[in-house]
Amino acid sequence: MIQKNFISLLCLLIVISGCSSFGARKIETVSKPIEIDIMQPDLPRPVQLTAPEWWVVSNAKITNPCRKVPNEEGKEVRPKNCAKEDTENPDWPDGYTYLDRFLDEMKEQNNGEVLFVATTIGDYKVMAEDMQELKRYIKQMGEVIIYYRNVTIKGEPAVGAAVKKNETTKD
After folding, report:
1. What's the pLDDT tens digit per position in 110-147?
2. For the chain, what is the domain count?
3. Containing domain of residue 162, as a range?
4. Does a structural domain hold residue 20?
5. pTM for this predicted structure
6. CA gap 114, 104 in Å, rounded
7. Which of 17, 100, 152, 158 supports an S-S bond with 38, CB 3.0-4.6 Å?
8. Residue 8 within any structural domain of the chain
């Protein structure tokens, strides 16, 4: 029984004193930067915009000028008066307006139906201002992306995405 008490007391002494009887070891903490390789996601594809076709329609009469003819000196000049068949567009009726031409072209494009979407000058102004606001926002977001890419990419400057407009021509 004494032996049992002695072992219990010895175990209790070791538990209470812990490792302090062996001496304290000094722990030194050192801070040093670690290079982290940050994965850069691919930039989205550039924006590809297509310009819509705009029509200005009015009741103003379209001038149907005479065809150019060579004069005595060999230069091409446009006579002031000519017969209807000598005009640039002999198939146009007298008094043909921009509205008439627009309606004819719409009928041709839409299988004889007159169908188009119109807007007012005020609404067009609002749309133009909104487009400028979108361009500003996209440009500023691109600058933010470039900033963060420059901060996280070491050794090479970052480049941003460009906004390009597709040029379309009508034949």
Report:
1. 888 887 778 888 998 999 999 999 989 988 888 888 88
2. 1
3. 44-55+118-171
4. no
5. 0.45
6. 9
7. 152
8. no
pLDDT tens-place string over residues 61-114: 888 888 988 888 888 888 888 888 888 889 888 889 989 988 998 888 888 888
Q: Give whole-number Cα distances, 64 to 22, 93, 96, 100, 161, in Å.
A: 111, 10, 9, 14, 47
Contact (Cβ atoms closer than 8 angstroms) between residue 93 and residue 87:
no
What phi, psi does 50 have (nearest 5°)?
-115, 130
Phi, psi at 104, each rounded to 5°: -60, -45
Residue 49 in domain: yes
**DSSP summary character for residue 97:** B
Beta carbons of 107 and 99 less than 8 angstroms apart: no
CA–CA gap between residue 65 and residue 67 (Å, rounded) = 6
Residue 83 lies in a domain: no
